[in-house]
Amino acid sequence: MMQKDGVVTIPALVDLHVHFREPGFSYKETIRTGSLAARAAGYSDVFTMPNLNPVPDCLENLKVQTDIIARDAVIGVHPYAAITHGQRGAGELVDFEALAPHVAGFSDDGRGVQSEDLMREAMVRCKAVDRVIVAHCEVDSLLRGGYIHEGQYALEHQHKGICSESEWKEIERDIRLVKETGCRFHICHISTKESVQLIREAKREGLPVTCETGPHYLLLTDLDLREDGCWKMNPPLRAAADRDALIEGIIDGTIDAIATDHAPHSAEEKSRGLAKSAFGIVGLETAFPLMYTYFVKKNIISMERLIELMSLAPRRIMRMGEPQSFVKMNLDKHYIIDPAQFISLGKATPFAGWEVYGQPVWD
Known about the structure:
Structural class: alpha/beta
Shape: globular
Strand order of the largest sheet: 6-7-10-11-12
């Protein structure tokens, strides 16, 4: 890391978890707009989730996506294949052997794999082809129609809640399966204190388990919620005790990476309030300034730790080797987050109006 006159040169950022919506949902985002937004924010590489149409669950379907990437991406865009056909979290597993040479890993993000036997078999097959499973951990039977955290805000405002157990219970199961199979296992967007502790214990046992969380889970709680779709994401914003446990996790190394779960939707899809809006917010263009402003400048973590979380650790998890790209960040640049200025087609963020520091410098 080199610094001069408030401008620091750091390894380019890497995001393990984005949704670029193409093919199938290009009105929300495209490979081009998503990758332009990522590049403008300081990212050299991103990893895209498979909730697309067609779902990348076979080579023919994957090629639809990779052809668009080859044509339109302005940074490294690395696709995940689905774990199950149709990305249903159930049914038949994909052909891991056929897909492995062409993808970064396997994920059914948006759905947890519900069957223990099916997830065990997925891990066995994934380990055989030396790839990583990138898991959205969620027990469907515990959701009970919820759409925000089952906490104080939901109770006071008569909303249906999502319990914390729906996340950590499947993490608990999957860690046990990792112990059986030895599969490399990365856990998406953790949000609960129980998840942090389970992962901490798994790491103490030396299991090949890594995880990520997002800036919104570190900066917000369910008591910050408003009756606006910009505050709806999955998993939901949790309680203060969960946020505090996540902060401890980024400090002590339990949490490996900061990922955005960049999930753009149309303005109409996010205009239906908490109950009926689509799940998901955008994050590529706010992640670094938020983390720098509210964690590095406040001396909660060091700049070196932030680089680890947003660049170096994601590279290690995906076995990318040493950084080849670097970005200059003007740490003295002060501005207000304005979604109207986003390059991404998605504008939904709970951070509109926040004051931040830190912006890439483009020669």
